[in-house]
């Protein structure tokens, strides 16, 4: 089966792995909690924006979507902190998720720098 270009990106594969990891976290949190929906939407946004951005033709369009994916990853990190503060998950779980997010954010920053003339430094 033919792969789409975004499926070849390590950052996309890592973001899909994070969604799977996050699904296990979400199963332990009541859907009635605001952080459940927020974390679900933010984690889902990461691979969707990577895929959409990778399909754009201009560097600025690609960077805009990669920036959104990066913002969603940061939102996920904050959501994990909120879950710990509300005693919905253990700190060790949040730390595991943040480790995955750090890798994703680093790769996204690399993609942004590779696609942006004004953000090479």
Automatic annotation (TrEMBL):
Record NCBIfam families: four helix bundle protein
Pfam families: 23S_rRNA_IVP (PF05635)
Gene3D superfamilies documented for this protein: 23S rRNA-intervening sequence
PANTHER family named among the record's database cross-references: FOUR HELIX BUNDLE PROTEIN
Native source species: Novipirellula rosea
Domain of life: Bacteria
InterPro entries assigned: 23S_rRNA-intervening_sequence (IPR012657), 23S_rRNA_IVS_sf (IPR036583)
Protein name: Four helix bundle protein
Membrane-spanning segments: none
């Amino acid at each position: 089966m033919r792969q789409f270009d975004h499926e070849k990106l390590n950052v996309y594969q890592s973001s899909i792995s994070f969604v799977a990891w996050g699904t296990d976290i979400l199963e332990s949190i009541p859907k009635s909690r605001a952080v459940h929906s927020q974390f679900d939407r933010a984690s889902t946004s990461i691979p969707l924006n990577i895929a959409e951005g990778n399909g754009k033709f201009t560097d600025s369009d690609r960077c805009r979507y990669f920036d959104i994916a990066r913002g969603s990853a940061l939102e996920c990190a904050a959501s994990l902190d909120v879950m710990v503060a509300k005693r919905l998950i253990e700190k060790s779980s949040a730390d595991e998720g943040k480790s995955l997010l750090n890798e994703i954010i680093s790769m996204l920053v690399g993609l942004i720098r590779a696609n942006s003339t004004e953000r090479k430094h």
